[in-house]
Amino acid sequence: MLDGYPVDINRQLVNPIGHEHERVMCEVTIGDDMGFKWNKQRQCYELITDRQTWSHQIPIERFLEKITQLYCIQLLTATAKSEGFEVESQIVNSNNAVELTVTRWS
Predict the structure, then answer these.
(1) Distant-in-sequence contacts of 46-53, Cβ < 8 A, 24+ apart
(2) Is the whole model's pTM more than 0.85, yes or no?
(3) Does residue 103 contact residue 83 with C-beta atoms inside 8 Å?
(4) Residue 21: how many CB atoms within 10 A of its CB?
């Protein structure tokens, strides 16, 4: 689950009612109508969704900001652990910035 949406892998997105888009297979889906597909040329994931039928409470731009922030937290945590650090704390500030404190004993 991601913010209340079910997450799945290697799944085809569902077309909104009345829309006959090409069906897209995504590496990661969030709910039935949004997902991420790997772009081999650009070497990055692209968000796949229909802006016209976006009915979620959060705007697309804010959704992408949250996804990016969660990805960065996971990446930093994994990198810190691989370098022998432990995450001591993770604090979300009033402006939604995340502060990670890591320690390593030698």
Answers:
(1) 48/13, 48/24, 49/13, 50/16, 50/19, 50/21, 52/16, 52/19, 53/16, 53/19
(2) no
(3) no
(4) 10
